[in-house]
Amino acid sequence: MAFKIGLLGLGTVGAGTAQILLDRASRHPLLQEIEIHSIGVRSLSKSRPVQLADELLTTDLEAIVNDPAVDIVVEVLGGLEPARSLILKAIANGKHVVTANKAVIARYGDEIYTAANSAGVYVMLEAAVGGGIPIIQPLKQYLGVNRIHAVTGIVNGTTNYILTRMQTEKGEFGDILADAQKLGYAEADPTADVDGLDAGDKIAILASLAFGGRIKLQEVYCEGIRKVSAADIAYADKLGFVIKLLAIAKLQQPATDNSPEALEVRVNPTFVPKTHPLASINGVYNAILVEGEPLGQVMFFGPGAGAGATASAVVADIMNIAAVLKSNNNATTLHPLLSCSHQHYCAIAPIEDVVTRFYARFLTKDRPGVIGKLGTCFGNHNVSLESIVQIGFQDSLAEIVVVTHDVREGNFRKALDEIRSLDAIDSIPSILRVL
Amino acid sequence: MAFKIGLLGLGTVGAGTAQILLDRASRHPLLQEIEIHSIGVRSLSKSRPVQLADELLTTDLEAIVNDPAVDIVVEVLGGLEPARSLILKAIANGKHVVTANKAVIARYGDEIYTAANSAGVYVMLEAAVGGGIPIIQPLKQYLGVNRIHAVTGIVNGTTNYILTRMQTEKGEFGDILADAQKLGYAEADPTADVDGLDAGDKIAILASLAFGGRIKLQEVYCEGIRKVSAADIAYADKLGFVIKLLAIAKLQQPATDNSPEALEVRVNPTFVPKTHPLASINGVYNAILVEGEPLGQVMFFGPGAGAGATASAVVADIMNIAAVLKSNNNATTLHPLLSCSHQHYCAIAPIEDVVTRFYARFLTKDRPGVIGKLGTCFGNHNVSLESIVQIGFQDSLAEIVVVTHDVREGNFRKALDEIRSLDAIDSIPSILRVL
After folding, report:
1. Beta-carbon neighbour count of residue B380 at 10 Å?
2. Per annotation, catalytic residue among B89, B95, B140, B202
3. Are residues A173 and A319 part of one domain?
4. Which residues bind L-homoserine per the record (chains A, B) (predicted)?
């Protein structure tokens, strides 16, 4: 019995996937039973990095998801449409689906998994988060015996590359972004990466798996790295931190015993203590830290993107579906750890209710008593400070850095509003959360 | 339908396992269908960290593996016997087995898996390596689509704790071992840990999974950390390295196109470049780095021991068996990624054939020409040097440090034999491999 693959897309990841499936020696023996049946492409004439028989290729993607011979549809087109529609059609036709498409799953996961469950098929997405790092299946199959407290990840390689270079070269965001674009590490339109939206899609998916409920993507707070400056990175360094774009999903400590449980799900540049396992993840690498009871902390590290790494995850998903079908061909019940049965939506805390530490940098007129006034404003709003230090001058302005204890974000923002109205305040160039 | 667990052993890991299974709220819903049926203990009167109904406990371990009501036997006794016999009896009685016992699996894995395959049952061992880190199942289910080149791990927490403290405190092995024993980080008889035998069991298991064949444990080369000195750690630091006890399973580069493929499987203290992902794994933590094509490098990091972490892995295995049985109750075929079908034994290269870099420290009489003589001896045996430096004096002896390029270990040893016969040589206090 051979499992027949319909591959939608032959870009970087598609070509990498085909390459593994066409060169199966010395890989898992189960791959011998998996074969590429057809590949949907935009243009038949384009040259490819992988040798393929002409008759495998077609521009008719609909035909692939409707082809009764195809067992598993592998969607590596990227983008929302036609990816979403093709996935739904494949499911309606009783085909299993493997996708690397975090954008589609984060937005249409509920629709897709509802359809998959009623059709009795699997939708696998290991490649959607963390590239080649096995993180989706460990969360689904292993870590769930724990009470998960938090999932914290560096899940966007482009921004981690930019922040790493800003740190090493003491450069500014704009210059390094431009260079990263030249070198192919950032896209011509870098919005999805640098504004944290890609990381937002990914943490929505991880949060859903870790906390066992659906996540409304519009409730995920996303803040990117455009405002991070060389000055902040230098101060972070002095204080014993590095700045990383973290994607965080965390169960809140209830304020009282009767408070409802809520999740924080957010993406923001963060001061990370240098001793923290995520602090040393540099360049385009990704890492995901999972914390739970009784396990403690485990971290998964590896290449977050790239043809080979992502294809490794895609083919692993194909192999897992093949394995279940092989041992379980007549079953009417889906394997409970490979399928997704979430029904309810997780309650996501508004960003104002998040409790975290903050770092903020102020430029103020150099007058006596400014530090006292800042302290008073923070006190007025219940914001407890760890330190408030004048660190120097910039032009004729005094530069003051504040680090808070854990505070409610809403209170911190109100304090900032009051501070902005002070005569002595010129500006607040940086506000960053501290892990 | 509930799955009934017979738990053999109620020590640290057993109690941790029971604790999870008795307190299932906010964990994976599948755990609701798993219940403890009986627990085998040595003494009924001992006080336990976990509250258990008296009628669950028995001192008759045989009765548990023979009890028709038990679906899954969980062996957390440790040690070779009666663990091995009880596992084999459970299998013969058609029960699935979850074990945390690296020693039994590394020694009797062939016997146990042959029996399991013929009885049509699963033997799961996530907890046997890396404590709470999911590494066994990612290797079995995900990473195998790659051509694995190497698995390199810090898999023994005790030795990593000792080496980390030797590095931080500039202390000697004996003193820190004694203190670690006082603090409970090392056992009264530390042999299995400090001589690398525990790590040897674990790398044998990882090698078997990564390279798809059985491993003869007696072919695994094990060298411990007793000879590592504060002086070596200091020189390593100067040269840009830290010293770690690494467990390594690596496909050798064939010397010629016709050379047979062979595996290196070994445990030895190693110079690890400070920039390497394993260099920053400190204290009792474990980490396993897997390298393959096309994936590149992925690393798994977490607590390598402890009641909670290990129990997390044990319960995850139980849940995986339950999931397969639930979706697949009448199947006659084992799930190919959860079972183990290795038949052949991997060819393990003798340690003399390993190709690696070396660091060696010599004490020599302070005579002109000693460095030249050392160089000549190495040259005589085809050992190419990266550096040879006199770094100082110790008493009236000159201290010379040599770092080689990649060399065949057999050649290096022959060169050392010749060097030992030189008049000018007092001793060779340290010989360490370099990653």
Report:
1. 13
2. B202
3. no
4. 187
Same domain, B316 and B284: no
A142 to chain B, closest Cα gap in Å: 5
CB A36 within 8 A of CB A61: no
Task: Report d(CA A127, CA B392) in Å as an integer.
Answer: 53
For position A364, which CATH number holds?
Answer: 3.30.70.260
Domain at B60, CATH number: 3.40.50.720
pLDDT along chain B (435 residues), means of 10: 93 96 94 97 87 92 98 97 98 98 97 96 97 96 96 98 97 96 94 97 97 95 96 94 98 75 94 95 96 97 94 98 83 85 90 95 90 95 94 88 96 96 93 96
pLDDT at residue A391 is higher than 90: no
Same domain, A111 and A162: no
Asked if the Cβ–Cβ distance from A27 to B297 is below 8 Å, we say: no
Give the residue-averaged pLDDT of A406-432.
Answer: 95
Q: Calculate ∠ Cα A30-B149-A184, nearest 5°.
A: 95
Q: How many independent structural domains does chain B possess?
A: 3
Look at residue A339 and tell me if it is in a domain: no
Q: What is the pLDDT of residues A75-126, one digit of tens each?
A: 999 999 999 999 999 999 999 999 999 999 999 999 999 999 999 999 999 9
pLDDT single digits (tens) A275-328: 999 999 999 999 999 999 999 999 999 999 999 999 999 999 999 999 999 887
Residue B153, domain CATH: 3.30.360.10
Can you tell me whether residue B86 is helix, strand or coil? helix
The Cα–Cα gap between B222 and B231 comes to 22
Contact B312, B135 (CB under 8 A): no
A281 neighbors B293 (Cβ within 8 angstroms): no
Q: What is the Cα–Cα distance from B358 to B164, expressed in whole angstroms? A: 21
B145 lies in the same domain as B59: no
Residue type, A233: I
Q: Are residues A292 and A157 in the same domain?
A: yes
- Domain for residue A334, yes or no? no
Q: B338 in a domain, yes or no?
A: no
DSSP A346: P
Mutation for testing the A interface, residue in B275, B298, B326 having most A CBs under 10 Å:
B298
Q: Say if CB B59 and CB B42 are below 8 A apart.
A: yes
**Nearest Cα residue in chain A from B324:** A335
Q: What is the ipTM of this complex?
A: 0.95
Domain that holds residue A430: 354-434
Nearest CA in chain B to A13: B294
- Length of chain A, in residues: 435
User: Catalytic residue among A89, A140, A202, A244, which?
Assistant: A202
> What is the model's pLDDT at position B212?
93
Q: Among this protein's residues, is B202 annotated catalytic?
A: yes
- Report yes or no on A160 lying in a domain: yes
- Report chain B residues whose CB lies below 8 A from the CB of A137: 137-138, 141-142
Whether B140 and B128 share a structural domain: no
Contact (CB, 8 A) for B290 and B209: no
Q: Tell me what the mean pLDDT of segment A150-164 comes to.
A: 97
Mean pLDDT of A249-268: 84
With CA atoms as reference, the chain A residue closest to B281 would be A277
What does the alpha-carbon distance between residue B57 and residue B319 come to, in Å, rounded to a whole number? 22
Residues B211 and B238 in one domain: yes
